What does this fold into?
Amino acid sequence: MNDSPTTPEITMVGLENAPQTTAARPACRRRRLAAVPALLVTALLFGAYVWQPAEDGRAFRSPYLAQAGSRYADTPLARFHYVQAGSGTPVILLSPGGTSVIGWKDQLNALARDHTVYVADLPGQGYTRVKDPDFAFDLDSMVTAVGAFMDGLGVRQAALAGNSWSGGWALAFAQRHPDRVTKLALLDATGLDLPGTVMWESLKIPVVGELAVKLSTGRSTVRGLAEGMMVNKGRVTDQLVDEWWAPMTFHDNIRATYLLERRLDWAQTERALPATRTPTLVLWGRQDTVQPVERARRFADLLPNDQLVILDGCGHAPQLDCPDPVNRHLRTFFAG
It folds into this structure.
């Protein structure tokens, strides 16, 4: 009997609290949902500007470099990595953008029959280490780097060749220093004021570019990139992938990749094409998915002193994809 007054009192308290609990639940859910964008932005910013992938490539021991022999040219601007072979008039092959001296592995000895051949990693590529803290990774800086490498070796004048980005750098150097370049070979080169692929254009977007480059340093991703550039997939061997991949994991090269994509001003090189007098070989893969073959014809239309060769069954890196015809055309051009 004494418990009966207590029971309704407890029931009333529960009823009074029930509406408050029900109303509080949506408010808590809204607060949690509102926090999601902030957490996502924080994670993206952390990934772009704080987190660094492991430099796994530092532990890689290159079979190619063990055979070819790494060399270094120390200058105030950078400690340039290069390989060298042969004797005769100098030919400098600039490592394709985003890779290393491995990009010319099939040309080094072929051209060394008639020339002293240097294959050079410019800043942000391969195994070269930048010393100048103010190096800007723009077109002016890369042109300066070509000259610094030549000066470091005591090479006053040479024939130049480049593929992709490095073709554009070789072109810009020849335009600004025509007295130092005897001949110029452009293989599927940049240098026209035209947009790149969606993937490359995305690197120009802050945060997106940093994350994209950092997340593309795995071996499987590098293999996919290489196979996407080449028609003859069988040439994308495990050894080539390892050689290509290792320097792509270096933090300095990661940073250089997105900075170069944002800062290279190809309007300068395109404007100067009609006044470019250096004898030029424009050598292109017909199946290039990065720099479409129509761009080869535009180079040929604008250059006053050029030869145009389009190779069927070859992609963006013809010197790796189709080495035999590339070697034949380069040897003929440089020997003339």
Residues 115 and 249 are 33 Å apart (CA to CA).
